Amino acid sequence: MVWSSFATPTAGGYTGLISGDFRNPIGNRQAWTGTSPGFVTTIVRLPPAANGQNIQLRWRLGTDYGQEAAGWSIDSVQFYTYQCGPGAVSPPGPLFKVAPSNGAVSVSISPSLSWVPAVGGTRYEYCVDRVVNNSTCETGWVNVGAATSVVLTSLEPGKPYQWQVRAVNAGGSTQADVGVFWPMITMAPPNPLADVIVDFGSGVGLWAYFDAGGAAFLSRIHPLSPTLTARANLNGNAIADLVVNFPGFGVWAFVDNTGWQIIHPWEANSIQAGDVDGGGRDDLVIDFQGGAGIWILYDNGNWGRLHTLGATAIAIGNLDGTAGGRADIVIGLAGFGTYVFLNNSTWVFLSGSAARNLQFGDLDGNGLGDLVAHFPGFGQYILYNGSEWLSLHPLEASGFMTGNFDNDAANLSDVIVALPGNAGTWAFVNGNTWLKIHALPATIMTTGDVDGDGSDDIILGFAGRGLWRLRNLTTWLPLHGLTPESVVTGRFSPN
Fold first, then answer.
1. How many Å separate Cα 430 from the centre of its chain?
2. Neighbouring residues of 455: CB distance < 8 A, sequence distance ≥ 6
3. Same domain, 244 and 349
4. In terms of pLDDT, which residue wins out, 68 or 257?
């Protein structure tokens, strides 16, 4: 075997001359030496004789008695083949990510991803995952054309992500940094405490329990009692908005905790919010009364009809893991079954039974939305990753909600279920354990991190017994003596 020295690297080359005074076997030669700030990407063009041949690479380490220091390592090696001749197109050359840096923390929830352009790249595609595995794009690649940066708009605060970019041309694609994804963690919200919006019914009206940065107070935000309440983020900022249906007055929104705005004069049977078009702000999915069907109010102000029929249940979440921030809409249709509207474009059949309640949550911790559904006569089922239905409980629940109640490291969603009769209220924790949390079935339920400890608190209303909060699945705390009509949580105030 014949060993040949490489030519001078075209990038990330040798850093200095090795001294010949300390018996180093590679003394008086150029080498990588000194202190490195981290892994350095080096590019070397192989000689023509290596074309089409099996080759071995070796690195020579020279030591001496001049100074003691830590060793060195090679992280990964990647080869690129360039085609020559008329009409031949080689894949893009090496590509390097810039920001956010590898392992960055306290990253903005609307960060700018940037990278150095690759030689021969005609377009770029990026991938952002909640599954941090450093090597695989779980959510799909998003084309940004020739741009070398993109601003994201739909990341969650305080969550781990990974990102990657690849250069593409007619000859193939090249991932940045020899295929290694970079992890990052988004910044926590300035005040993680959730506010609680409570509808106490006719004559009492709609009230907000604002945390005010720890100095909580109760404030009336409307004298009327709505029939529906939903949390939304209509303008893409860190403050949640409240969307309600007022009998006789239609659908309204309480925006940025400042004032009421009318959404539509028609009354609604159901209101759900989510980023259906990937624009970075929530769109509203509304099932209107009077046979008007289901409509989408997009964040650009345009209305689009989703379906002519009314729904038995509606939920919005990312069922298929497709990138671009596009949430999917799941609806139950009486007499037709349960369907999902994927990526704002395609209807897909899910079940022959029409669901009566639907909730999204990540029950297996892989970053993709799992669907919890109540089917009359069959009980509750979970659709994992859009592909497999498994029974959750055979009894028909009067209600259920999802959230992370125990703050487990895997960030698994849990499910709280109110079962009929004397069966009480239960929590399905970490995808495998049932815990009975109360002997009575809850009539009202929601979840939210009211105390800011990282775990969702369970907020339940019991008939004739008022409104209560279960903290960390262990401690019951009273919120109010009246039993409300509905409750919703979120950061509705900027404090």
1. 18
2. 404, 405, 406, 407, 449, 471, 472
3. yes
4. 257
Average pLDDT of every residue of the chain: 86
Residue 5: the pLDDT is 67
CA dist 475 and 405 (Å) reads 12
DSSP string, 1-34: ----PPPPPSBS---EEPPSSS--TTTTSEE--S
Q: Is 495 helix (H, G, I), strand (E, B) or coil?
A: coil
Angle at 145 between CA 141 and CA 150, to 5 degrees: 70
Pick from 85, 92, 96, 97: which is nearest to 123 by CA? 92
Enter the tokens of residue 4: 């040949």
**Distance of alpha carbon 183 from alpha carbon 346, whole angstroms:** 32
- Beta carbons of 263 and 254 less than 8 angstroms apart: no
Neighbouring CB atoms inside 10 A of 88's CB total: 10
SS3 content of the chain, % helix, strand, coil (to 5): 0, 40, 55
**Range with the largest mean pLDDT of 64-68, 88-92, 291-295:** 291-295
Q: How many domains does the chain contain in total?
A: 3
Q: Half-sphere exposure (CA, 13 Å, Cβ side) for 392?
A: 31
426, pLDDT greater than 90 = yes
Distance CA 251, CA 244 (A): 6
170 lies in a domain? yes
Read off the pLDDT of residues 328-363 as tens digits, 9 standing for 90 and up.
999 999 999 999 999 888 999 999 999 999 999 988
Q: Are residues 345 and 327 in the same domain?
A: yes
Q: Residue length, the chain?
A: 495
Model confidence pLDDT, tens digit, residues 140-198: 899 999 999 998 876 777 788 899 999 999 888 999 998 899 999 888 665 556 788 99
Asked, as a colleague might, if the bond just before 100 is cis with ω within 30 of 0, I would say yes
**0.90 exceeded by the pTM?**
no
Same domain, 63 and 142: no
Q: Are 293 and 308 in contact (CB under 8 A)?
A: yes
